[in-house]
Amino acid sequence: MELDRRTVLRLAGAVPVMAAVPAELPGGGGPWERLRARLTGELFRPGDPGYDEKRLGFFGLYDHRLPAGVAVCANEDDVRHCVDFAARQRIPIAARSGGHSYAGYSIVDKGLVVDLSRLNTVEILPGGRAAIGAGARLGQVYEALAAAGRALPAGSCPQVGIAGLTLGGGIGVLARKYGLTCDNVESVRFVGADGEVRPVSEETAPDLLWALRGGGGGNFGIVTSFTFRTAAARTLTNFTLVFPPVVLAALVAAWQEWQPAMPDDLWSGMGLGATAANCGGCFVGTAAQVNPLLDDLVRRVGTQPTKREVTEQGHLATMRAFAQEAEFPAAVAQRGEYVATSRMLTRPVPDPDALATLLSSDPHLYSIVDAYGGAIARVPSSESCFPHRSALGSVQIIRGLEGGEAYARQVIGRVRDELGREYGRAGYVNYIDPEMPEWAKAYYGDSLPRLRRVARKYDPDGLFAFEQGLAR
Length: 472
Description:
Shape: globular
Helix content: 25-40%
Radius of gyration: 22 Å
Distance between the termini: 21 Å
Protein name: FAD-binding oxidoreductase
Number of helices: 15
Strand order of the largest sheet: 15-12-14-13-17-18-16
Structural class: alpha+beta
Largest sheet: 7 strands, antiparallel
Number of strands: 18
Oligomer: single chain
């Protein structure tokens, strides 16, 4: 009996390590040169000018990985040609939008990287919808939408790609008001493992649309563009409260009672660490409306902040301000030099003092708590596979590389596992951690069995398999 590719991978207990593709074939040319000739865009191979730049992602930790080729696609046909090539030559393939995977999964050693950065158009459609190419970065998306008076709930880092953010969920400063980024997806264009383009919508492929709304980047196939619902851009008020680090526990205790009681218009997050006890956020409305709500939080904390900034401005100016905030480390850095992991806060913190001790246990450790609730919690499981709708929030645990990568991962792993014992083993796939225990259950929860079925249906031979991929 001939074993299919997935079976071989499972028996081997590994992701695809497939036969190397020869650079050239007898008589000249070769598969890579034939791919190069078929592309409208550019193919960068080892030794080509520009290869050493094009192969890099955001995180320097993965600079040692050497793709066999990086295809900078100019159009959807280029993506089809790349998928067909990888399937025929039996090599690993990965799409790259922004390249911000915490585990570096968009850089495949000895495989083909499908760079989508040129597929970055943003088109405003009738009815307030927007067609956005999978290679667009968030800063560009915000600028284009704002010019049309529209807004999309998404992240705060301007260099992050829209595709990876959306496919894993997409938490942002407007999420309590308008939902996750994936909740606003109406349809996508998708290149499957068979190399064919599919329009994916509720009418054409409802199972795949469900899976793409939170099923994580890199799975099922390659999305080339999204159609989103957008909202009218409104006046926003962003705020920052900086408290003395000694009141970290009091801030956590106050915030977890205060935030769920706030209207959907108010989103907030906390930045916590040995030298940080900060709360920042965004309100859909005016400074006069949000200031009494902030007074309530300060009263609950019992200590006046050392810094309080409340700024009312237009939508685009607010997004630009969040892109620069110190509460979001490395948001505007060219390269990332840190490791990260996550846990979900499935219930209020029973012992804020113990949490404060844990999050302050290393001077290079920093944690970001993002609020959930509001519109996030109201999306039924039948519409999206994102499994963390009832969470109070997520905790992103970040540490610089002081002491080396192995030690940094040990530190964040200890915090991750301590939180896991208290709140359960759920995590956020967009903060993907290569060492996450029971990662599939952690990231996908009750959605996992159905997601596995969708993966088998649309990628039956595991073309898009990777270490933490659903096609393994």
